[in-house]
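Risk mitigation, structural track. In case the binding assays with adenosine-5'-triphosphate fail to produce interpretable data, a predicted complex structure has been prepared as a fallback.
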Amino acid sequence: MSVLHLEIMTPDRVAFEGDVSSVYLEGSEGRLGILPAHTPLIATLSFGKLRFDQTGKPREFLCGEGFLEISENRASVLVDSAEDKDDIDQDRAERALERARSRINSKEADIDLTRAEAALRRAMARLKFVKGE
Ligand code: ATP
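Fallback model:
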């Protein structure tokens, strides 16, 4: 079976490293599917699910924004965050959701709405991911 080498790196750890048969992830212009022997590529990534198959065993991470580089059958994913289900603290995500909602609903002029909406989307995505949705 042909494989490619995948590394998922965040500022504080290597979240995964190993040979996989496919990778699907959230490119900033849409979902990307990577198979072995992919042509060299650099792409930006949006917050979203990264799924890969390791000898028939699919695994998923929820990844933050970042970059993908493919070169010589290695896919390097450099992202702000990468969590698998067990890494996610549900209470923390619920607090983040509440904080973002109250910022969005407050009528104060100095609210950075774009930032609050992005925080809301991250918290909602984490809560859905934990529930397997
Ligand atoms: P918070 O306001 O709770 O920090 P956030 O969406 O602003 O949430 P990020 O900027 O996406 O957080 O991530 C910062 C770091 O915190 C990353 O390492 C990320 O993996 C981690 N992190 C954020 N939320 C959670 C969570 N609910 N459970 C576990 N780790 C989390």
